[in-house]
Amino acid sequence: MNKKKKKKTHVPFRLNILFFAVFVLFSVLILRLGIVQIVYGEDFKREIERTEDVTVNNPVPRGKMYDRNMKTIVDNTPSRAITYTKSQSTKTKEMLMVAERLAKLISKDSEEDLKKVRERDKKDYWILTNEELARGKIKEKEWAQYDEKKLDDKALYNLQLDRITETELNELTKEDLETLAILREMMSGYALSPQIVKKEVTPEEFAIVSENLEMLPGVDTTTDWERKYSYDKMLRSILGKVSDSEKGLPKEKLEYYLARGYSRNDRVGLSYIEQQYEDVLHGQKAKVKNITDKGGNVLDTKVITDGQRGKDLVLTIDMDLQLAVEKIIEEELAKAKQQPRTGLLDRAFVVLMDPNTGEVLSLAGKQIVNDEETGKTVMQDFASGNFTTSYNVGSSVKGATILTGFNTRAISPDTQFYDTPIKIKGTNPKKSWKAGLGTLDDRNALKVSSNVYMFRTAINIGKGNYKYDQPLYLEPQAFDTMRNYFSQFGLGTRTGIDLPNEMVGFKGTEKRPGLLLDFAIGQYDTYTTLQLAQYVSTIANGGNRLQPRIVKEIREPVMKNNEVGPVLNELEPVILNKVDGKPEWFDRVQEGFRRVMQERGGTAYGAFYTADYKPAGKTGTAQAFYDGPKRKNYDKPPEVMNLSLVAYAPHENPEIAMAVMVPCI
């Protein structure tokens, strides 16, 4: 009996131990859960509900451009648009679903839309919409290699792409292509940045999409803008271009713009004024904060700051004057082309500027080209050619030659030369355009455009000892001397105009004595029409080389289209340098220029003697070699003549300066 009692008491003891152990374990578990909930509960809850604030900059319309009389040149035209904004976690299938729904509501099947769809886009779409058939493109042994990690996902996808047949692609319907065109636009955007799916949306499309936004996640209706040019194609080569939202930021300046807060699909200025004044025109973008969960899904959107369109530019151009100048160029070019031996003539340029401020009043250029679409000959804007192309300009630079002679003491205001041909041993005679000009001083040498006077001046600058038909030695540094002085007028150097891509011109590399003589009459180095305008302005105002400007003012934008905002910055005249020389030296050159146009015998007297605005100036004719678009048609460059004219008026108190260039006649 005692043994039985002992056994009975042994079993409950073990059970008690077991129950105690279970109790301890449950107690530890409860304690652990308590610590997790009470001590770390808020931390875990915050981690689960963690959000991220992502700030997105929404683009705004660019600033406007006005002419000096406040006539609108460039504006923005609002248009209805449909955008798509994908989140950081949006899947391609989700985008496809939205694209299919959107394709039923809007039209996206124009020739331009479908032209953007490439063969690769079609293949990607086919794989996306034919998953089972796409999987069947992969062979069993390739799947085995995939399982063995000898092939990765990218390799399998490339195999599928390669094995899609032309027949399978041709099975895509018009509806498929329209959906694909929409999907392509949606996928080209960046996360949380609105991407334009369609511009120029019809009122019906805008309304029906607006009514169905709930079934179109990420889609929105908005107002977009396009640049509007009030004067059509006039000055378009100067106003510049703006990128579209599809291309966005130019690749070559991507990092530059991203570092300044731009989005990749922002529209920016690509050339000339739009590019030069990008910081002014692009405006202050609206800042929108997207609050997302850790999966990238947008939970809320808050506007941080409202956007403001770009600031406005008031240009120095007078559009009425520009219109009149361009009309004259077109008429005169058309007349000239009717004359014999003008097959290479295809362009002409005119610059008008204020010689006292540097403001460019008109920057006109025309070029005759063949229209690729119609095959017809048309005359297109080539205003940029005034500072991006250069030519031998001839005698119009003789004012700089005379002043260089004065400054180097090669000649004095009393110096006279008899106009007779110059003959250097072993070369052809160099003479003036007309025989019998007689003995001339500097003023009359300009009046009748004596080449010989300029030759003798250049010889003296080079410290030469000229004798007829004998060798001539000139100091090689004479080229540098003349070029350095010419550059004080803006010839052969950048004028400083507030536009990109300005050309300096070409400098001859050889330094034979005869070439210095050619240089003195404008038949060696090349110059732009804008350089000529700066040069003659410097003579007109008595020696101040002013920086040419295309922008006069920067103004604050206002909301109403018929109002102009207050002046934010008025650009003052900038004197780049003061030309070396005595006032009386400039007086003599100015008098020579006056005689050219106002006295009988002057080279421009016949065209200007009746002008009541009392002009002064200098004509130029240069022998040159053709190097234009038709150069490939010739074994050797054909010989041509370049015509130029520099002038200002009135001669006593100049208000306007002009440079004209007609090359390749």
From TrEMBL:
Q: Which family does it belong to?
A: Belongs to the transpeptidase family.
Please list the residue ranges annotated as the Penicillin-binding protein transpeptidase domain: 349-663
Q: Which Pfam families match?
A: PBP_dimer, Transpeptidase
Q: How does it sit in the membrane?
A: Single-pass membrane protein
Keywords linked to the UniProt accession:
Cell cycle, Cell division, Cell membrane, Cell shape, Cell wall biogenesis/degradation, Membrane, Peptidoglycan synthesis, Transmembrane, Transmembrane helix
Membrane-spanning segments: none
Does the record's keyword annotation contain Cell membrane?
yes
GO function terms (MF aspect): penicillin binding; peptidoglycan L,D-transpeptidase activity; serine-type D-Ala-D-Ala carboxypeptidase activity
Is-annotated flag, keyword Disulfide bond?
no
Domain Penicillin-binding protein dimerisation residue range list: 59-301
Record EC number:
3.4.16.4
- Pathway per the UniProt entry: Cell wall biogenesis; peptidoglycan biosynthesis
Could you tell me which species this protein originates from? Answer: Mesobacillus boroniphilus JCM 21738
List the taxonomic lineage.
Bacteria, Bacillati, Bacillota, Bacilli, Bacillales
Q: Name one GO biological process term.
A: regulation of cell shape
What is the protein name given in its UniProt record?
serine-type D-Ala-D-Ala carboxypeptidase
Xref: InterPro entries: Beta-lactam/transpept (IPR050515), Beta-lactam/transpept-like (IPR012338), PBP_dimer (IPR005311), PBP_dimer_sf (IPR036138), PCN-bd_Tpept (IPR001460)
